[in-house]
Amino acid sequence: MSRLFALLCLWLLPLGNALAEGMVVIAHASVPRTDTATVQRLYTGRVIEIGGIAVVPLNAPPGHPDRTRFLRDYLKQDDEKYIGYWTVRRYIGKGAPPRELNPGEMAGVIQTTPGAIGYVPESELRPGMNVILRRPSDDPAR
């Protein structure tokens, strides 16, 4: 029985690491590094540029694990609260939520779209990606 438990733990270990992995905010090469507060304002429609450069925030679809981690780590919200926020904001005429795309497309769209900003798991970082914020604890403003 203990051998079965040990095997189960070893089998589930990579899953735990994936769930604990942080999200990295990446952007088109034209976008400068930023801080968590600016990322929060971008994804809530309160800011539309960084350093004078118009920014296009991109989001994973509702319920996707990448989006859940990003909202938790950077916006301190869950999906339900975030969707509710944008429902009200759109209703009162204060803009539309960030464009949603399949996470597999996120990095490619960001690299080819001037001003695009999004997020990927740390394990998906590739050479040449413009990382503008690693984690809220890596904030240059702190």
CATH superfamily: Periplasmic binding protein-like II
In total, the number of strands is 7
Instruction: Give the total of domains.
Output: 1
Give me the number of helical elements: 5
Which of globular, elongated, flat, extended, rod-shaped describes the shape? globular
Largest sheet: spatial strand order: 5-4-6-1-7
The helix content is 40-55%
Oligomer: single chain
Arithmetic mean of pLDDT: 86
End-to-end Cα distance, whole Å, is: 49 Å
SSE order, one letter for each helix or strand = HEHEEEHHEHEE
Could you please say which CATH topology applies here?
D-Maltodextrin-Binding Protein, domain 2
Q: What is the CATH class designation? A: Alpha Beta
Report the biggest beta sheet as strand number plus sense, adding barrel if it closes. 5 strands, mixed
The class by helix and strand makeup works out as alpha/beta
Hey, roughly how much beta strand do the residues contain? 15-25%
